[in-house]
Design goal:
This protein is of the alpha+beta class and 365 residues long. It is built from six helices and 23 strands. Strand 1 and strand 2 form a beta hairpin. It is rod-shaped and about 145 Å long.
C-alpha cells in the first residue's frame, strides 16, 4: 500500500486503482420482476411459433345424382320429362336419365389412380324380405379406364339413359313365367375405385321400383360425402412471427442472464465470506451516515485507529462529519474514515482479521 500513498501538503491521500464494478448490495427481491420478465418473454416466444402435423394429407369426397324422368307420348303431360322428387306413373315412364357427379380433392398431390363404372342391377326379391333375392341381373352400362389422379384432384361427371320399359317388362315376364309375387326394382350405380395413397371404393346409387304402379325414385349418396385423412402424423415446429421470435428470445436470454447474475453475486458475495457479510451489514444498517469515496481517500496527518465501527460512528457524531468509505482492496480490505477538525479516525475492516475472529469464535464490526 505504501506505493499507493501520496502526500499533498499536510494531507495523506490514498489512491486506489479502479477495480471492476461489483455490487455491494444484492437484492433478492429483484428476482421477482425478472421472473415476470422471463414469463413475458416465454409467452412472446411461445406465441411466435406453432406446431403442425406433417405427413398427413386431408381429402374430401363429394358426390350427387341428378335425374330426369322422360315420358312416353301421352294425353296428360305436355312436358317431355319430369323433374326429381316427384312420384311417377309407371306406365308413362320411357327413359330415366341419371347424371352422376363425383369429386375427390386432396390437400396435396397424391400417387393414386382411379377407375369407375356405371352398372344397372335388376332384382326380384321376396315381398316380405327384400334381402332375399330371387333373381338378379347386372348390366355394365359404362366402364372407364384406369386413370392417374393429377394434382390431388379427381372429378367425374357422367350421364346414362336407362330404358325403364326394358327392365320393367323383363322382370314382369320373370314373375309371370314362375307365377310368383315379387318386389322388382332397378339399382342404378356408379362405382368409383381409387387405389394408391388413397384406397377407397365409393358407390352412388339410385333405386327405381319396377313392380309398382307408381314410382318413387330414391337416391343414396350419404356415405359418399365425407372428409378423411391419410398418412402418419409427425409434429413440426414452424415460425409464425419472426420479429416476435427474436424479441421473445432476447427477453428470455437477458432475463436468464440477470437472474443468474443476481443468484451468483448473492451466493459468492456472502457464502462463507465473513468480510463480505460484515461489510454488507455495515453498509445496509448505517447507510445514512456513510459517504462512498470514488478512488481517492483523504486523511489528516494525525490518524487514530478505532477498534470498531460503532466507535467510529461515535466519533463522526462528535465531530459532525460523515463516514467516508473506500474499499481499498476489493474483497479483502475496506477503510471507513472520519476527518475531524484535527484528527482522522479510521476503522479498518479486513478479511484476514474477520477470519481470525471467526476462528476464535468472536466477531467485530
Amino acid at each position: 500500500m505504501q506505493s499507493d500513498i501520496d502526500y499533498i501538503k499536510t494531507d495523506k491521500i490514498y489512491k486506489v486503482k479502479k477495480q471492476p464494478w461489483r455490487p455491494h448490495k444484492v437484492r433478492m427481491w429483484l428476482l421477482f420482476p425478472l421472473m415476470l420478465l422471463l414469463a413475458l418473454g416465454g409467452y412472446v416466444l411461445f406465441n411466435s411459433v406453432g406446431v403442425e402435423d406433417k405427413g398427413l394429407t386431408d381429402y374430401k369426397v363429394t358426390g350427387d345424382i341428378d335425374y330426369k324422368v322422360y315420358l312416353k307420348d301421352n294425353n296428360y303431360y305436355a312436358e317431355k320429362y319430369l323433374d326429381p322428387g316427384m312420384q311417377y306413373i309407371a306406365n308413362l315412364i320411357s327413359v330415366v336419365r341419371a347424371d352422376f357427379s363425383y369429386e375427390l380433392v386432396a390437400s396435396e398431390s397424391i400417387d393414386a389412380n382411379y377407375q369407375y363404372e356405371i352398372v344397372a342391377e335388376a332384382k326380384a326379391t321376396d315381398r316380405s324380405d327384400k334381402n332375399k333375392v330371387l333373381y338378379g341381373r347386372t348390366d355394365t352400362l359404362k366402364a372407364g379406364k384406369i386413370v392417374p389422379i393429377e394434382d390431388g384432384k379427381l372429378r367425374i361427371d357422367d350421364k346414362v339413359d336407362v330404358d325403364y320399359r326394358k327392365y320393367s317388362d323383363y322382370l314382369k315376364t320373370f314373375r309371370s313365367d314362375f307365377g310368383i309375387a315379387a318386389n322388382c326394382f332397378l339399382d342404378l350405380k356408379m362405382v368409383v375405385k381409387v387405389d394408391g395413397a388413397i384406397k377407397t371404393e365409393d358407390t352412388l346409387a339410385m333405386n327405381i321400383p319396377l313392380s309398382d304402379q307408381t314410382v318413387d325414385i330414391a337416391i343414396d349418396t350419404k356415405a359418399i360425402n365425407r372428409e378423411a385423412t391419410i398418412g402418419e402424423a409427425t409434429k413440426e415446429v414452424y415460425v409464425k412471427n419472426l420479429p416476435m421470435l427474436i424479441a421473445g428470445s432476447i427477453i428470455v436470454v437477458v432475463s436468464l442472464i440477470l437472474i443468474a447474475a443476481i443468484i451468483y453475486y448473492h451466493k459468492t458475495r456472502f457464502d462463507d465470506n465473513l468480510y463480505e457479510k460484515a461489510l454488507h451489514k455495515i453498509l445496509k444498517e448505517y447507510d445514512t451516515y456513510i459517504v462512498n469515496a470514488t478512488q481517492t481517500l483523504y486523511e489528516l496527518p494525525n490518524v487514530m485507529r478505532v477498534e470498531s465501527f460503532k466507535e467510529l460512528l461515535d466519533a463522526a457524531q462528535a465531530e459532525g462529519a460523515p463516514v467516508v468509505f473506500l474499499e481499498v482492496v476489493p474483497g479483502e480490505k475496506s477503510y471507513f474514515v472520519v476527518n475531524g477538525a484535527n484528527t482522522t479516525y479510521r476503522y479498518t475492516l479486513s478479511k484476514a482479521y474477520q477470519d481470525k475472529l471467526a476462528s476464535e469464535d468472536e466477531k467485530e464490526y
